[in-house]
Amino acid sequence: MTDSDPQISPGRKRWELDREAWETLLSALAADREIAGQKYENLRRRLINLFAWEQSEAPDYLADEVLNRLARKLMEGAAIPHLDRFAFGIARIVIQEQNRAQRNHEIAVRELQSGAREAGHEWASLDAMQLCLDRLPADRRELIERYYTEDRAALARALGISVNALRNRAMRVREELFRCMSGGRDEA
Amino acid sequence: MVNRDDLIAYLLHRIPEPERLDFAEKWFGDPDLDEQVRTAEAELLDSYVRGELPRRERAQVERYLLNSDPQRRKLAFAAALRGVLPAPRRRTIPWLMLAAAAVFVILTAVAVGIETQNRHLRSQVANLEQSARPLAGGVYSMSLIAGGLRGGAAERSITLPGDLRVLRLNLDLSEAERAQSYSATLSMSGRRIWHEEPLSPQTQAQVSFVSAWIPADVLASGHYTLLLEANGAPAASYSLVIVK
């Protein structure tokens, strides 16, 4: 348990993930540890996007809150056949709680954000972007460079693929670049 | 596959709330749809930093997609990507140039007549925009009046807000040679800090300008020169002082 949580609801204690709960959550995601880690990151990324697109001001914090609650349910022995669906259900409740609490806790949110800003100050420099581009394999680097600097219809014709297929390929490389810029932390 | 317009409608909050969450539940459990939404968002942010969105969509992006640090990181990423991989140059079509030359003769006469009025309007714009104007999500906008290549405009001082992520500079084109596209180079003590091209001219309230998008992390306190070039030749110069 930690101090009262201003993000979720006033006066309520926030339950934190301990090692045992973390292991329980990973085991529920997949038997293989590496696959479980990937599934965890994927689930967290989707939760962050969900909260961000619902205009939450601290989506990563709320994503962790959902994962904490999910782990707690598992620790309590709940049988959860579809973890994704269950996580979405918790997220839905958190969105409602957050909407109720938001107006009363703007100051706390601002404090959280200012902390995150400090950490991300040098985040998207051109040098870092160039470095990440340089790290890409030659074929993917050429694809993303041409996608952004050439006529896309002509490029798709030259590659013998549809514009949609070109877009999908380019966006995957873009996400790879984003992960590189994030130091492997985030996904778009 | 979901229609792209539906994805944009979800991201820009154009669908009612109950349906929003129903759609969210769908993409949350469907990896393909999840990827489609992320692609739509990436394209929106790319278009936003490249100045390609209509005014209404720009406002909706600022209102709905730039509210948190993860979202602002996505915007800063798109701006950096634009800095390294600028949009393609537009090819000049010969017949269009011929027609433009003919029209130019007529427009020159008209332009002389409205120049006086433009100067007045530009003066008003300059007076109105004395400081960087917050848009959303750490994006600030301000206008710079050209000094011409021989100087002449007062050096503009800008105090950068603490939460600045991207500074949009609207560069007045009244003193610049007219062109279909421009490039902008920001220098400090002769050292190149930032370069961006192509920049397409826009016109609002009879004032023509181009917008340069500069990530905050390339800006330190000091005196800067911003050189605007058209067709490889200097077109206008702007002076500014950044205070952090």
Written account of the structure:
The complex is a heterodimer of chains A (188) and B (244). Chain A has nine helices and no strands. Chain A has helices at residues 19-29, 33-53, 59-75, 83-102, 106-119, 126-135, 138-149, 152-159, 163-181. Residues 1-12 and 107-122 of chain A have low confidence and may be disordered. Chain B has helices spanning 4-11, 17-29, 31-49, 55-64, 69-84, 94-128, and strands at 133-136, 139-144, 156-159, 166-172, 182-188, 191-199, 202-204, 207-215, 222-230, 233-243. In chain B, helix 1 packs across helix 3 (31-49) and helix 3 packs across helix 5 (69-84). In chain B, strands 1-2-4-8-7 form a five-stranded mixed sheet. In chain B, strands 3-10-9-5-6 form a five-stranded mixed sheet. The radius of gyration of chain B is 20 Å and the shape is globular. Chain B has 244 residues and is an alpha+beta fold. The chains are: A mainly alpha (188), B alpha+beta (244).
CATH class of the largest domain in chain B: Mainly Beta
Can you tell me the overall shape of chain B?
globular
As residue ranges, the low-confidence spans of chain A are: 1-12, 107-122
* Amino-to-carboxy terminus distance of chain B: 47 Å
Largest sheet of chain A: none
Report the principal-axis shape of chain A: elongated
The tally of beta strands of chain A, per DSSP, is: 0
The helix-and-strand class of chain B reads alpha+beta
The number of helical elements of chain A comes to 9
Features:
heterodimer, A: 188 residues, mainly alpha, Arc Repressor Mutant, subunit A, 2 domains, elongated, disordered N terminus, B: 244 residues, alpha+beta, Immunoglobulin-like, 5-stranded mixed beta sheet, 10 strands, globular
